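Collaborator request, handled under Task 6.
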Amino acid sequence: MRPRWNSHQLQGILAALASAVLLGLSPVFGKQAINEGASWLTVVMLRTVAATALLWVIYLLTPGLRRFIYIYPVGLAGCLAAGLINGLGSLMYYNSLSRIDASLGQLIYMLYPLFLAVLSQLDGYEVSRFTLFRLGLALMAVYLLVGLGVHNINGLGVILMLGGSLMYALHLVVNQRTLIDMPAPTVALYTLTAMSVTTLTAFFAEGRPAMPPTPLAWQAVGLLALATLLSRLTLFTGVKHLGGVQAGLISLSELLITVIGARVLLGEQLSPLQWQGAGLLGLSVGLITRERSLGAPQQPKPWLKILTARFTPPTLTPPTPPAPVKPPISKGE
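Structure tokens returned to the collaborator:
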């Protein structure tokens, strides 16, 4: 039986998969820069600011993209809120990555679809039992892929990674509502801008840590910035056409990309148990063909309609005059 996908749903699936590949490579590049002696705060600041600056240059120099710079005030507020939330989450993530093992960190961070499902239900978006089943399969795959053979765990690092995972899910919920009113490129531009302001503020507040000390560290930061830029554009396209929960489930495949990238670039090896997890994760993502509510309209009202309903005075309609009463007809007529 062929999946009943329209062009928007197919575009959302391809965008979410592309985002998963890019996001899966990001922690590999980030860990590589940190291993080369770069400060975690310098890494997160440089990758966000560089990606934002490059995106602004592309929009300003490309006539077909300049129209995406326009944004109305309520939409800007939504993007700034999402960027602030995700910026704080990025600071937590890379701080945690410098404290705990990368495998354990990715296991904790990959819990964000669970947070996302709970937050989406609170926001009025119905999550089907089949979607929860796929989520359960994906979490089992995460367990098999990463494993829990970690000793001497840094408690603060675990808490920070949990906070980063929750912040990432929360920013998707905010952007899911904002994307109802605005195109994905506009949301990506202003969300990234707010993230840059957040990380840059933290960088200067910390006393401007040193820049990456080696050419390999700079190369890793540059690739990380490029992956951040492209993943933001594809991520919000996927969220716009599929919703946050479905895009988040597809993005779980980024962990498989991380494992493969870590094997190639960092020398890590896959165990037979991890390959079983990879297969289970592929099954969870592949079951999207059986989703009945794929791409269903979101229940939350757009920001613009909420604002319009709140500040637009109700129209007063004149009372309807009573219908004329016909005189009774006498029997003699």
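The cover message to the collaborator said: "Confidence is low (pLDDT under 50) at residues 294-299, 306-313. The chain is about 70% helix and 0% strand. Please let us know whether this matches your experimental observations."
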